[in-house]
């Protein structure tokens, strides 16, 4: 059980304390704040992301209207255990985490690998989710999903040569607009200066990429059985999870809204256009 509920409105994502809860034999690290309510928004993060990789502009804007929770996956950051070797296992952990916080239903905002995990969560316990926002992601077995592995290793190598964060290349286009957006985003991730999360190990990257590669080759799931309201968003030039997969994903959900595609942007389109994205996302979550 958790020792406390959502933190007060006085916190920002840069200052909200990290909490812990035990579930599924693990001790999950999470951050919880914003307005109290019956249904929180759970943020499902990307490949090798710890709690410090959540965009504070997005988190704070949602917290102003809703209760939002971010968490570390198994073996990531301050969460205990060994990193899971399948997307399905990560989904089971997420379900256990949500139940440990005593929530019967949640809204989900998922980015990249978080969107893969969300789809697997639906297959196990569809009633746990109410509304779902899927960004920079695609369907299981979608054409190009497994290519994330090669793209990621290539850009990590480039980042080592140029002494940059790999997200500079993976999430943003490499023209002036994209590079400026990348710098702004990476600077936002540094706003939290105290009580930062534990750094992610290289072994986590390898296992998560293997899980994604396998998931990308698996048979597609029948998402047509899920009647949840779904909002899909991406940049128009996503190199990690190709943009066309966002349209493919939306078509598979019977109650999906028109896909949001942001111009001159890549995998991190929602971060580059966070103000525009938040207008749509908050309307979707509150209507």
Description:
The protein has 287 residues and is an alpha/beta fold. The protein has one domain (19-286): Alpha/Beta hydrolase fold, catalytic domain (Rossmann fold). It is built from 10 helices and 8 strands. It has helices at residues 56-63, 87-100, 113-124, 148-162, 167-170, 176-188, 202-217, 244-252, 269-272, 274-286, and strands spanning 19-23, 26-34, 41-44, 67-71, 106-111, 129-135, 230-235, 260-262. It has an 8-stranded mixed beta sheet, sandwiched between helices. Strand 5 (106-111), helix 3 (113-124) and strand 6 form a beta-alpha-beta unit. Helix 1 (56-63) runs parallel beside helix 10. The relative contact order is 0.16.
Integer count of domains: 1
Pairing-aware structural class of the strands and helices? alpha/beta
Question: Count of DSSP E strands?
Answer: 8
- Helix count from the secondary structure assignment: 10
Beta-strand portion reads 15-25%
Q: What order do the strands of the largest sheet run in, or round the barrel if closed?
A: 1-2-4-3-5-6-7-8
Termini separation: 31 Å
Secondary-structure element pattern, one letter each = EEEHEHEHEHHHHEHEHH
What is the averaged pLDDT score?
95
CATH second-level architecture: 3-Layer(aba) Sandwich
**The CATH top-level class label:** Alpha Beta
CATH fold title: Rossmann fold
Mind telling me the CATH superfamily name? Alpha/Beta hydrolase fold, catalytic domain
Low-confidence sequence ranges: none
Specify the helix fraction band: 25-40%
Shape: globular
EC number: 3.5.1.-
Keywords: Hydrolase
Protein name: Aminoacrylate hydrolase RutD
Pfam family, one: Abhydrolase_1
């Amino acid at each position: 059980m958790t020792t406390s509920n959502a933190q007060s409105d006085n916190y920002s994502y840069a200052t909200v304390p990290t909490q812990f809860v035990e579930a599924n034999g693990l001790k999950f690290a999470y951050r919880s704040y914003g307005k109290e309510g019956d249904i929180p928004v759970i943020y499902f993060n990307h490949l090798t992301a710890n709690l410090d990789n959540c965009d504070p502009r997005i988190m704070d804007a949602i917290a102003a209207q809703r209760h939002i929770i971010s968490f570390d996956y198994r073996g990531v950051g301050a969460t205990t255990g060994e990193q899971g070797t399948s997307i399905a296992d990560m989904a089971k952990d997420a379900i256990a985490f949500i139940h440990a916080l005593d929530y019967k239903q949640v809204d989900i905002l998922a980015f990249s690998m978080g969107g893969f995990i969300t789809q697997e969560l639906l297959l196990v316990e569809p009633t746990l989710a109410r509304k779902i926002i899927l960004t920079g992601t695609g369907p299981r077995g979608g054409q190009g999903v497994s290519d994330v592995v090669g793209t990621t290793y290539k850009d990590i190598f480039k980042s080592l040569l140029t002494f940059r964060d790999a997200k500079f290349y993976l999430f943003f286009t490499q023209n002036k607009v994209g590079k400026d957006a990348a710098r702004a985003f990476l600077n936002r991730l540094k706003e939290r200066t105290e009580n930062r999360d534990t750094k992610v190990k290289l072994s986590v990257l390898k296992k998560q990429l293997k899980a994604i590669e396998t998931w990308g080759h698996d048979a597609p799931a029948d998402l047509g059985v899920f009647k949840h309201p779904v909002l899909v968003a991406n940049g128009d030039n996503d190199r990690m999870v190709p943009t066309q997969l966002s349209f493919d994903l939306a078509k598979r959900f019977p109650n999906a809204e028109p896909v949001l595609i942001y111009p001159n942007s890549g995998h991190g389109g929602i971060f580059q256009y966070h103000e525009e994205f938040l207008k749509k996302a908050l309307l979707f979550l509150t209507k």
